[in-house]
Structures are given as C-alpha cells and as structure tokens.
Design a protein that fits this description.
The complex is a heterodimer of chains A (108) and B (121).
Chain A (H helix, E strand, L loop, with lengths): L3 E4 L2 E4 L5 E7 L7 E6 L6 E4 L13 E6 L2 E6 L9 E6 L7 E2 L3 E5 L1
Parallel strand pairs in A: 2-10
Antiparallel strand pairs in A: 1-3, 3-7, 4-5, 4-8, 6-7, 8-9, 8-10
Chain B lengths: L2 E5 L3 E2 L5 E8 L8 E8 L6 E6 L5 E3 L7 E6 L4 E6 L8 E9 L6 E4 L3 E5 L2
Parallel strand pairs in B: 2-11
Antiparallel strand pairs in B: 1-3, 3-8, 4-5, 4-9, 5-6, 7-8, 9-10, 9-11
Classes of the chains: A mainly beta (108), B mainly beta (121).
C-alpha cells in the first residue's frame, strides 16, 4: 500500500502569510496527487489535481508542485477563508486511494 | 449542477449492518467518465476511502474493509449504495459519497454533504 505523510499536522499563521504544506508518498506516484480543503462540518472540496492544476473557481493564491514522492501546497497570501484542514490524496494506485493525515491551518 | 445526497439511518447497533444510499441529481450515474465512491471520516480524524463502483457494477474496495463492505448501483434510480456488516464503535464516522473522475487523474470532484453514522447500543 502507498502511504501518504503530510507535514506539519497543524500550523498557526496570520492573514497575509505565505503557507506551505508538504505531502510525501512512500513510493513514486508520478503526478497522481490531489489536494482538498475541508472546513468544519463541510465536505472536502477539490483544490488542486494532478499535483499542480487548479479546478475552475479556485483562487490563484493556491498552487501545487512536485512529482514522484514529494509534493507541496502553497498559499501565497493566507486569507481568512483559508483557515481549514488540507488533505492530500494519491490515486496512482487507482482505484486503491489513500489520503494523507491532514494539515490544520489555524489563526495565529 | 451535479449534486449527491447521502441518506440512511444515523444510528446503528453494534454487530448490525450499516446501510447508506447516495442519490445523484443533475447528472447521470451511467456516465462512462466516472466512478462513484464512498469515503468516511471518524470524528476529529482524517479521510478514509471505503470503495468505488462503476455504473456497470464493477467494484473496488479498501483492502482493510473488503470483507465487510458491499457497494452496489441502481442506474434506474441514479443511486448507489453502501452496506457494511458487523459494525463496531470504530465505524462511527461521517460517511461521504463522491464522484470520481476516471479518464485521467482519478480525483473526487463532487461530494455529498456527508451523513453521520453512530454505532451504539
């Protein structure tokens, strides 16, 4: 099974900060890496797919990079509505998905 | 706009069977471009993929749950369903249904709002 490790598990940041979250796969997954944003009491929302592609409607302050085993999600200037938990997901071993453990972004 | 809605009992007794249905509206479950999946999230914890189904009935399950899980599809009702047997308190979670893209990168692009299932006597 492919394991996904996210770091940090939580972070505190201020509005306007640049935030970076990392996700590491236990083996190479090419670019089959996706990011989701989840707010309390809500379903996850697709934020980035294929490591770096933003779906329509996602603000450009979000960006993703990486391939192989190491990936990053970057928020260039944190906004109040970005405080949430972020999950990575690998689908290289389709259809046997795995999600990372999540990173909670909190207000400093 | 595609919408998914989970339905089913919110309380299940230990050792019994959890049954949920996902109703899809605004699109056809018979599309060749998508799988349909179930994901769960225990309170305060992360996401766990349970399994997925194609409209033809082909199923794919998380190996750790495979012995207890059955996913089925009813194309006439535009629904798919989850059954999980022999539940314990560890199966208490919010259960989400979602659409999974199957032609390129396999991400989940539409999700239901989720339904909390509590396993308790």
């Amino acid at each position: 099974d492919i394991q996904m490790t996210q770091s940090p598990s939580s972070l505190s940041a201020s509005v306007g900060d640049r935030v970076t979250i990392t996700c590491r796969a236990s083996q190479s997954i090419s670019s089959y890496l996706h990011w989701y944003q989840q707010k309390p009491g809500k379903a996850p929302k697709l934020l980035i797919y294929a490591a770096s592609t933003l779906p329509s409607g996602v603000p450009s302050r979000f960006s993703g990079s990486g391939s192989g085993t190491d990936f990053t999600l970057t928020i260039s200037s944190l906004q109040p509505e970005d405080f949430a938990t972020y999950y990575c997901q690998q689908t290289y071993s389709d259809p046997q998905d795995t999600f990372g453990g999540g990173t909670k972004v909190e207000i400093k | 706009q595609l919408q998914l809605q989970e339905s089913g009992p919110g309380l299940v007794k230990p050792s019994e069977t959890l049954s949920l249905t996902c109703t899809v509206s605004g699109g056809s479950i018979s599309s060749t471009n998508y799988y349909w999946g179930w994901i769960r999230q225990p309170p305060g914890k992360g996401l766990e993929w349970i399994g997925s189904i194609y409209y033809s009935g082909s199923t794919y399950y998380n190996a750790s749950l495979k012995s207890r899980v059955t996913i089925s599809v009813d194309t006439s009702k535009n629904q798919f369903s989850l059954k999980m047997t022999s539940v314990t308190a560890a199966d208490t979670a919010v259960y989400y249904c979602a659409r999974r893209e199957r032609t390129s990168w396999y991400y989940f692009d539409y999700w239901g709002q989720g339904t909390l299932v509590t396993v308790s006597s």
